[in-house]
Amino acid sequence: MVNADDVELIRLRSWRSAAMGYSVCVFLVRDQLIDTGFPGARDTVARLLDERRPRGIVVTHQHEDHAGNVTLAADRGIPIAMARSTEEALRAGEANVGFYRRACWGAMARLRSAIEPHRPVGLELLAMPGHSPDHHVVWDAEREILFAGDLFLGVKVRVARPMEDPRALAQSARRAAALRPRVLFDAHRGLVPNGAQALAAKAAWLEETIGAVDEHIARGWSDRAITRAVLGREDVVAAVSRGDLSRLNFVRAVRATAVRPAG
User: Fold this and answer.
1) What is the pLDDT of residue 4?
2) Residue 187: band (very low, low, confident or very high) from pLDDT cuts 50, 70, 90
3) What element of type H or E holds 166?
4) What is the rounded distance in angstroms from the CA atom of residue 202 to the CA atom of residue 195?
5) Residue 232 pLDDT more than 60?
6) Phi, psi (5° rounding) for residue 238?
7) CB of 249 within 8 A of CB of 243?
8) Where are the alpha helices (DSSP H) in the chain?
9) More confident residue, 100 or 68
10) pLDDT digits (tens, 9 = 90+) for 15-63
11) Across the chain, which distance is largest between two alpha carbons, in Å?
12) 153 touches 137 (CB < 8 A)
């Protein structure tokens, strides 16, 4: 799909990811590819790289649905831009990746290939952590287009993985909204209408929800009791992921980053 701003959105899915209700987008803009998709889409991504031969690739963060084919691109000699922390994470590999993630996206091997650095043309990587410590967005300032990676996902996202930080995510969403993007692309939702307003709404919901969690922490409530009171009961996602993607993780992350009184 090509939109009026000459951004080509390519939605990647495999039969496994489709069966679980997931897909992910990569974007071609200014002859550069944003993200590399997941290991299970290797053949599709390989054809894309061979046919389009982008001048470079920009990777938003370390997760396998975004960086799953970095080695494939590196082995083809395509220059790659990503944060040093992202490259370090890919080279270290992630231990104990949940079965549900392997089933959906495929297994991502540790990065061992050498990488030719890429200097993005007309695009800027901006650090906006929260979803992961190394999370970045890609900003086309000239055309006011924001490629948000997994920064947005939705306004009221009640679940989190262990590495997520809701407080940092709220701050990042505020910063992204302040850019006043004319166009917002989300890696899973695609084009997001009224992007700046959507990001501001997400930040506001996170701030309100974090505040409610903090109030219950101050009252001495347990994490599970807070989860039920503020976010509601867990759904099937928590069960399938064995708690890796859960509402409880959201509360635990808020507690872990709470400011403790002095003394």
Assistant:
1) 54
2) very high
3) helix 166-178
4) 10
5) yes
6) -65, -40
7) yes
8) 15-19, 42-52, 64-67, 70-75, 84-92, 99-105, 166-178, 195-218, 223-226, 236-240, 247-256
9) 68
10) 888 988 899 999 999 999 999 999 999 999 999 999 999 999 999 999 9
11) 63
12) no
**Pair 90, 64: CB distance under 8 Å:** no
Query: Is the pLDDT assigned to residue 263 strictly greater than 90?
Result: no
Amino acid at 242: R
- Domains belonging to the chain, first-starting first, are 1-121 (3.60.15.10)
Residue 37 near residue 24 (C-beta atoms within 8 A): yes
The C-alpha atoms of residue 90 and residue 48 are separated, in whole angstroms, by 22
CA distance 147 to 231: 28
DSSP secondary structure code for residue 110 in this structure: P
Distance (Å, whole) CA 120 – CA 12: 23
Structure tokens belonging to residue 260: 């403790």
Residue found under tokens 């209700």:
21
Pull the structure tokens for residue 158. Answer: 């009640």
CA–CA separation, 75 and 107 (whole Å): 18
For the chain, how are helix, strand and coil distributed in percent, rounded to 5?
40, 15, 45
Q: Which two tokens stand for residue 230?
A: 């503020």
CA gap 71, 165 in Å, rounded:
28
Q: Does the pLDDT at position 259 exceed 70?
A: yes
Q: Which amino acid is at 188?
A: H
Handedness of CA 115, 121, 127, 129 (dihedral sign): negative
In DSSP terms, which residues pair with 27 in a beta bridge?
9, 34
Give the Cα separation of 134 and 115 in Å (integer). Answer: 18
Q: How far apart, in whole angstroms, are the C-alpha atoms of residue 236 and residue 238?
A: 5
Helix 195-218 vs helix 166-178: crossing angle, to nearest 10: 150
